[in-house]
Structures are given as C-alpha cells and as structure tokens.
Specification:
Helices cover about 30% and strands about 15% of the residues. The protein is of the alpha/beta class. It has 2 domains: about 1-90 and about 285-300, Rossmann fold (3-Layer(aba) Sandwich); about 90-275, NAD(P)-binding Rossmann-like Domain (Rossmann fold), CATH 3.40.50. α3 (about 90-110) packs across α5 (about 145-155). The structure holds NADPH dihydro-nicotinamide-adenine-dinucleotide phosphate.
C-alpha cells in the first residue's frame, strides 16, 4: 500500500517519524509527498495536524490515521474528505505519560508544593496544614484512554476519584473504585466537593468553553483546576478573574487556544498558574509507530481499524 505522511513537522521531526514508521511498515511504501505517484494510489494518510488541503483529491484514501490523540484540529479542516474513516492515536505509552502528569499536578496541589516553591523564592520557612489523600476530592472530566489511566494512578495514590462522562463509552466496571457521573446536573453538584478538577475531555461543540465562570463558581474557593485537554475548554477571562479574586486556588495549564502561548500572555507570570508547554503526554514515535502498523495491517487484512472516531459527536 502507498501511505502518505502529512504533518506540520520540522525537518528533524519528519525524518524521525519517517524512520520509525518505515521500519514498522516494511511491506508498504511511505511517501512524504504526493509528487511522482498517482494520487489515486494513496490508501492511508498518516497525519499530525496536516496543512489544510493536504488530503484533498486523494480518491483512493481508505483511512486517515492521526498521530495525535486529539482530532479537533483535523475535524476543523473542511477539506478533510468526509467519507474516509479517521483513527486517533490510542497508545498505552501516551496514557502512562498523562497519568504521570496528572499525579504530579495532584500531588503538588494537594500538598501545596507550588506554594512552597514560591516561599523558597522569598526565603520563607513556613509549613502549612497537611491533608490525607483520601480527603482530597478529584473530579476527572472525561474517562477515556487518558482519563482511565489517570484514575488508576490517582487511586494508587489514595485519592478519591469521580469521573464525568457522556455515559456512552467506558463500561461502569472500567477502573473499579472510580465513582461515575453523567449529565450537567450531576457535574454541578459534584463540583462543590471537588478540590481538584482535571480536564481530559476532547474539544467538541459540546465541551468548548465548558470551564467558564459558572463552572468555576460551582467549585469551592480552595479548588484547583488542571487542564490537560485543550485550551478551548477554558474561558480565559473567567479563569483569570476567579484566580485574581482568590475564588480559585491554582490552575495547572498544559494546553492553550494559541500555542506556543504568546510571551505577553498573563498566564506566564501569574503566581497562581503553572504553565506547561503542551507536554503533559507527548506521542512517542517508537510506540506510536506500532499502533499505526497494527491499524494498517487491519486495513490490509480487511478488518476494521481500531480507535475510529465518530465524526458526528466530534471524538
Ligand atoms: P477518549 O475519546 O478516549 O475519551 C474521551 C472522554 O471524554 C470519554 O470518557 C467521553 O465520554 C468524554 N466526553 C466526551 N464528550 C463529552 C461530553 N460532552 N460530556 C461529558 N463527557 C464527554 O479520549 P482520550 O482520553 O484519549 O483523550 C482525551 C483528550 O485529551 C484528547 O481529545 C486530547 O484533547 C487530550 N490530550 C491531551 C494531551 C496533552 O498532551 N495535553 C495528550 C493526549 C490527549 P464517554 O465515555 O461517555 O464517551
């Protein structure tokens, strides 16, 4: 099969992806451009935020395989052929990395380590009260591949975990010990008891701007948020206002509507905000190439590829 690799990569990234994918797919031809090949012969596009129009006029295309877990930018491209199935990246290595980040953020917030960091800069020797992990209420927004891995890690750390979903995905038995809730009413009730909210939702029409003044207003004053989903989930002005007024304790933010986060953005210097450069969980080309290879094999053998998204619901 002819496979097209299309993404917004720099040269080194493109070379790395080409190397690992070519090694994982030795019986297929991996192309970096459509030049010199009939467009109708390209059957799979392996993509990472491809430039708009990159997949236009590929009449033989049978699968779009994303190298990233989130497909919101891909779905936002009107030139992506509507009839071709899209598979997103579901890689256990990605979930492990996400769980590490969630655990770090929760431990840092629960034990006040971000505050101690600031006190060090002031040479201030001052302890604060210490709570047990099981006294800290964690709410996960989203309980998919990422949310479930985070829940496992947090349960091992002794935290009380509640997960909010649409109710369509993971069975109730997934990750025993996690309380499951659906629907907005249940979410608003739960927020009042949420010390830390971790966002791991996909960005869709339903979830865009969910973390707004009403959402933050339903949380306790000592509450904190950890946004590992997408920047578009948070209404920035509302978050800054709550933090500035002391009505929210801290925000750990990994994702932003504009990335890289502009240098003049107030988040960078805000004492109640911790910024990460969209690094909560990076796709590891080594393991991701195996995931891609398994899906290309499925297609070649006439099986349905794994982790196809539902375009209508947006994830
Ligand atoms: P999944 O598709 O596996 O899971 C999505 C979860 O969100 C499901 O539990 C789903 O509910 C829930 N959900 C979706 N829409 C709604 C809604 N309207 N109301 C309530 N719950 C909803 O995705 P992943 O776990 O793999 O990834 C989630 C997101 O994490 C990605 O889309 C991406 O944006 C982000 N991400 C960020 C990374 C980073 O480095 N910061 C790295 C990787 C991913 P249900 O179970 O009912 O279907």
């Amino acid at each position: 099969m002819n496979l097209l690799l299309a993404g917004s990569f720099d040269d080194a990234e493109r070379a790395r992806w080409h190397e690992v994918l070519a090694a994982a797919l030795p019986q297929h031809r991996l192309l970096l451009s459509v030049d010199g090949v009939s467009r109708a012969d390209i059957e799979v596009a392996i993509v990472a935020n491809p430039p708009a129009g990159a997949l236009r006029e590929l009449p033989g295309l049978r699968l779009i395989q994303s190298l990233w877990a989130g497909v919101d930018r891909l779905l936002g491209d009107p030139t992506i052929p509507p009839e071709v199935p899209i598979a997103r990246m579901v890689d256990p290595a990605l979930a492990v990395a996400m769980a590490e980040t969630a655990l770090w953020a929760v431990l840092s917030l629960h034990r006040g380590f971000f505050v101690y960091q600031q006190r060090q800069r002031q040479a201030l020797w001052q302890q604060h009260a210490q709570r047990r992990a099981d006294e800290v209420g964690i709410t996960l927004l989203g309980f998919g591949a990422m949310g479930q891995a985070c829940a496992q890690a947090l349960l091992c750390g002794g935290y009380a975990v509640t997960a909010w979903t649409r109710g369509a995905g993971a069975p109730v038995s997934a990750v025993p010990g996690v309380q499951r809730i659906n629907g907005h009413e249940a979410l608003w009730r739960r927020l009042a008891d949420s010390d830390i909210v971790i966002n791991l939702l996909p960005l869709t029409a339903d979830t865009s701007g969910l973390l707004d003044a009403t959402f933050f207003g339903a949380m306790p004053r000592h509450g904190a948020i950890v946004n590992l989903g997408r920047g578009g989930h948070v209404v920035e002005a509302d978050l800054l206002q709550r933090l500035d007024q002391g009505l929210l304790r801290h925000a750990v933010l990994d994702v932003f509507p504009i990335e890289p986060l502009p240098r003049e953005h107030p988040y960078w210097r805000h004492e109640r905000i911790t910024v990460l450069p969209h690094a909560a969980a990076l796709t590891d080309p080594r393991s991701a190439a195996q995931v891609v290879a398994a899906n290309v094999l499925a297609l070649a053998e006439g099986r349905i590829p794994a982790h196809l998204i539902n375009r209508a619901r947006g994830y």
